[in-house]
Structures are given as structure tokens and as C-alpha cells.
């Protein structure tokens, strides 16, 4: 065997993300390299140098004694970081243009849905009621984005182009052209106070768990042109206190919410989110990236790594993302 | 009276567009000029030099013998052009940034709703069903825009930024950066054949009446990644053959439609559009512009006209827009 094998550990996902589909994509781009779809009894775990994973079971990666790099097939690595037996090798997360573009689509769509009163207009259609309401201009609305990495900065750019005022908040200081940037705990309240539509794209870490909670919703713009501020969470379910969201929607602290992620996924059928009239719910598909793009990205990184180059988008294990 | 009076003829509209609201806005920006809200028995019609109108009744404008300019408070002048007694003075339509921005919001929102399978996702939510489907990338979808004036070009620009392929069709040749431009009857079919999501922003003229009909829907991309092509009409109701749209939605020639305008408005309660599962319906509010912006625009044009300058956005009565 000339090249170290790549093992695929893929669990869950849509038909587009089936393990067989991943294998055919990796076979196409990993010339001369064995691609193993686990479980597979016909190979020696010591031959595996790389693993490309999607929701691997805890402990599963510890089976490979000669592992050199782990590639996560999505952007969020919180589940992997929780695996205490995770081999101490570089962990790379996906950062491809396709993923960024899809997340921007989701953010722009859901910001516009709340801005343009879609829940009200659909309700009017169901009631066969012709009842246009006054519509505020985009320039009267501030979208506040939590997380100003590749995803947050790209969504901010399109929202700005549409005329929204855009504010951003991140852990460390950042500068994004045309966007009012805030950072750290000290500037969190100032960021929240001007925010009418809050978009959360943060990674899930011990520091950000349940950051979306009642005390923070209460700090959002209380004089919003929308009536009450809106929450959009396309980060991770663990970022949100779900009981707080429901109570805040019901007492008017929040005017609406778009949720793509949940504490438990798939969302249990008895969750009150399903039938809530002010919740726009999607099944964690904000940025389902094309396997073609991701497999090419991984194959390219492996080639560069074997040629002595540096890996890109390596997770900082201290930060957790 | 130093300055010629401005008469307001405003019928219909939302609370934001009430005649009183218009009068207060024009009073604020027309310094030293009488602003008359019709009907008003206390003035001499001969004193009226300017009229700012929204859905005036046929014949209503013929009452002013010294009229110099008519300002239409919206972008579409088809209803005015149908008034055979319309005084033969310059007719100016609104072209303000605010109107353009709002139309772009509408177009981007509705393109994204169909692209991101919103009707399917809302149905899944109502059924409490967690069932993500594969999602095509924006680069696999062509949005075809009919009408490449200020509105069409601006919407095209944002759609391009989101990664869509964008084609445009107009009566006369146009060039828009990054957009495949078609024009005239000869290139109409080539434009339609590549279009997955058709956006209609055409003015209503005798030539464009019922241009949105079955033979043209049948020419749209039959191999669309969306399954079947989608229609978005934010121009005028007179552009669409409504029986054809319904039949094409039911036999699969169209996969969905977003309609903001109708043959009869308000849309009659017995219209099948209201309850159609593949119709996303809005009450002609795609681009309800801020009266503040429009009144400033009209006042500014009058000042320049009285100082000997040219009027902008004057309707070509032969073209009809």
C-alpha cells in the first residue's frame, strides 16, 4: 500500500450524505489511496492514516493507532470535542465556499422572512384576508450577528447590501467593513441593545452553552420597529435554553424565532416548537454542503500535508473550535 | 399665491399611505406651496400646477386646466395610461432608492423561499415531520428576470452575489455586469429555456398583457433541479393569465408561484389562489415605499423643473412606461 488509508466514519445525514455516497465521492478524488467505509473487517486499523468523520461514536476514532489527521465533515466540532478518547492529532473542520454560501442563503432568507412579516402574511393567506400592513425599511432594522468567522462575515456582507444595519459580536476583536463590531463580555450588552434580529452562528463550547437565554433576550432592542426582537439560531442546539425561548415567545420578549438546531435532534415529536405559531423550524439543514466539495477539500488538504505543507482550519483544542 | 398649488389625489392604500398622511408629508417638504387634498371645495382648480396621484379615478385629472406635471406615487403607470382624458403633460413615475430596495427584498426573499424548499419545510413542520431533503446549490439554479430596468438590475445584482446564475430579458438590448442578457421576441425562447425561477418585473402595456401564459411556462427549463420551474410575479396582475397559472401548477408545468399582484385587487375571496398549496401570496405589498422618500422626490423634481431643469423618469407615452 503506497498511501496511508482514509477511513470514513459517517453516521446519520440525509440521502445526499449517505455513507455509500461519501465513499464514491472520496474514491473519485483520492487517487491511489484506499478509502475504507467502516465497519469493514477486511483491513488493518494500523494502515489508516486519515479519518473523515460525521457524528462518529465516542471511542470509535481511538481504534486507529497510526492516525495522523481527523477531518470533520461539517463546521461544528463540539460533538467530537466531547469525546475524551479522541486521538491527539490535528482535527480539521470543513471551511468550503459552498458551506458558507448555503449558510448565507439560510441567514438572508430567515432575516427577510421576519423583516417582511412572512408569518403574518401566511396567516393572512390561510384566512383569505387581504390585509397589507405597513412595512418598515431595512435601514430601520439592525441585524446582530453572533460569531464573525467566515460564515458570519459573509452573511453580514449580503445583509448590508440589502440595506440592513448590521452589528457583529465575537469573542476576540474583529474588523468587518461596514459592520459595527463588538467583542467580549464587556461589549455584549451594547451589542444586544441595538439588535432587532439576532443571528447566532457561534460554535458550541463550554463558554457558549446556553448563551441564548432569557436574561440576554431581555437585553435586545425593546423599541424594535418589528414590535419585539427575533432570534435566528443556526449554530448548535446546545447554545439555546429552549424553555427560555418558549416562555419569551409567549410573553412577548421575543416576537419570533427561526430555529435550525435543537438540544435533541431529530426534534422530538412532543416538542412545543413544532406547532408554535411564531417559530419557523428547519431540520438542521441550514448548510448541508455538497459532498463533492467537501471530499475535494479533504483530498487537497491530505496531498498538501503529505508534501510537507500546513493543514488549514485546524481546531484549537483550547478554544474548542 | 406665489407658487402653483400641488393637488393630491390619493385613493386606496394601507394606513401608511392614507391621504392625510400624504398631505402631512407633502406639507413638510413643499415650503411655501399650497398642498390640496382632494376633494376640497375651497380652491380654484386653475391654481393647480402639479398633481401627485395614486389610483386617481378616470377623468379626475382633466379638471385642472393649468396642470404642468403629473407625478404618479408608484412605479407602474398602466392604470393612468388607460385614462383617455389624461391631460397631455409630462407624467413622472417614482424611482427612489427605497422602492428599489424593497422590491429587491421581495425578489430575494421569494427566490430563496422556493430555492430553499420553504413550502415543503412548512408542510413538514405542520406535520411534525423531521425530514430534510437534499438541497441543490444556488449555482445549479438560473433565475430569469423579465424587465432589466432599475428594479430588475438591482435584484439581479444581489441574486448573483448569493451564487445564483442570473439571466435577464428586456424589450431592448441591455448590458448588466455578470448577467446573461437577452432581448426582444427572437431571444425570448432562449431566455426561457434556461430559466428555473422566473421573476417578472415588467411594466404592463398592451404588448405585455398576459405575457405570463401556458405556452411560455411550457418553454421554461424542463430539466430544472427544482423539479419544475417557479413563477414570481411582482409586476402587475394584467401580465398574468390566472387560469393558465392554476392549470400549470396543477399539472406540474409549474412547481410553485409567488404572486404579489392579481387581475382583480383586492384578490376576491373566492380565488383559488388563496388556498392553493403551491402559491405564496402577498397583498400587492412587494414595494410599498415610504411616503417620506416619495414626497421628497416629488418636491425636489418640482423645484428643479421650476428652475428650468429637466424632469427625471418621465413616462414615454408611446412605450407606455
TrEMBL record, chains A, B:
<dbReference type="InterPro" id="IPR006140">
    <property type="entry name" value="D-isomer_DH_NAD-bd"/>
</dbReference>
<keyword id="KW-0670">Pyruvate</keyword>
<dbReference type="GO" id="GO:0051287">
    <property type="term" value="F:NAD binding"/>
</dbReference>
<keyword id="KW-0560">Oxidoreductase</keyword>
<protein>
    <submittedName>
        <fullName>Glyoxylate/hydroxypyruvate reductase A</fullName>
    </submittedName>
</protein>
<feature type="domain" description="D-isomer specific 2-hydroxyacid dehydrogenase NAD-binding">
    <location>
        <begin position="110"/>
        <end position="286"/>
    </location>
</feature>
<dbReference type="InterPro" id="IPR036291">
    <property type="entry name" value="NAD(P)-bd_dom_sf"/>
</dbReference>
<dbReference type="GO" id="GO:0016491">
    <property type="term" value="F:oxidoreductase activity"/>
</dbReference>
<keyword id="KW-0520">NAD</keyword>
<dbReference type="Pfam" id="PF02826">
    <property type="entry name" value="2-Hacid_dh_C"/>
</dbReference>
Amino acid at each position: 500500500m503506497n498511501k496511508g488509508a482514509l477511513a470514513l466514519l459517517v453516521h446519520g445525514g440525509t440521502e445526499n450524505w449517505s455513507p455509500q455516497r461519501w465513499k464514491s465521492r472520496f474514491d473519485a478524488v483520492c487517487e491511489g489511496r484506499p478509502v475504507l467505509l467502516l465497519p469493514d473487517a477486511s483491513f488493518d486499523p494500523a494502515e489508516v492514516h486519515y479519518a473523515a468523520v460525521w457524528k462518529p461514536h465516542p471511542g470509535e476514532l481511538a481504534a486507529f493507532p497510526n492516525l495522523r489527521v481527523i477531518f470533520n465533515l461539517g463546521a461544528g466540532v463540539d460533538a467530537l470535542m466531547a469525546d475524551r478518547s479522541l486521538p491527539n492529532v490535528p482535527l480539521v473542520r470543513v471551511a468550503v465556499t459552498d458551506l458558507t454560501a448555503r449558510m448565507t442563503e439560510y441567514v438572508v432568507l430567515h432575516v427577510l422572512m421576519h423583516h417582511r412579516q412572512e408569518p403574518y402574511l401566511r396567516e393572512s393567506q390561510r384566512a383569505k384576508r387581504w390585509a397589507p400592513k405597513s412595512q418598515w425599511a431595512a435601514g430601520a432594522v439592525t441585524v446582530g450577528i453572533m460569531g464573525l468567522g467566515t460564515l458570519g462575515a459573509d452573511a453580514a456582507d449580503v445583509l448590508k447590501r440589502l440595506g440592513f444595519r448590521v452589528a457583529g459580536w465575537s469573542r476576540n476583536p474583529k474588523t468587518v467593513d461596514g459592520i459595527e463590531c463588538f467583542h467580549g463580555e464587556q461589549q455584549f450588552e451594547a451589542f444586544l441593545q441595538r439588535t432587532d434580529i439576532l443571528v447566532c452562528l457561534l460554535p458550541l463550547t463550554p463558554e457558549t452553552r446556553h448563551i441564548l437565554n432569557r436574561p440576554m433576550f431581555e437585553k435586545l432592542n425593546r423599541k424594535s420597529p418589528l414590535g419585539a426582537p427575533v432570534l435566528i439560531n443556526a449554530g448548535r442546539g446546545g447554545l439555546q435554553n429552549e424553555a427560555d425561548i418558549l416562555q419569551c415567545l409567549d410573553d412577548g420578549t421575543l416576537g419570533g424565532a427561526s430555529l435550525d438546531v435543537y438540544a435533541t435532534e431529530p426534534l422530538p415529536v412532543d416538542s412545543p416548537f413544532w406547532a408554535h405559531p411564531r417559530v419557523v423550524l428547519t431540520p438542521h439543514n441550514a448548510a448541508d454542503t455538497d459532498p463533492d466539495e467537501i471530499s475535494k477539500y479533504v483530498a487537497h488538504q491530505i496531498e498538501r500535508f503529505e508534501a510537507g505543507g500546513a493543514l488549514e482550519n485546524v481546531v484549537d483544542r483550547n478554544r474548542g473550535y
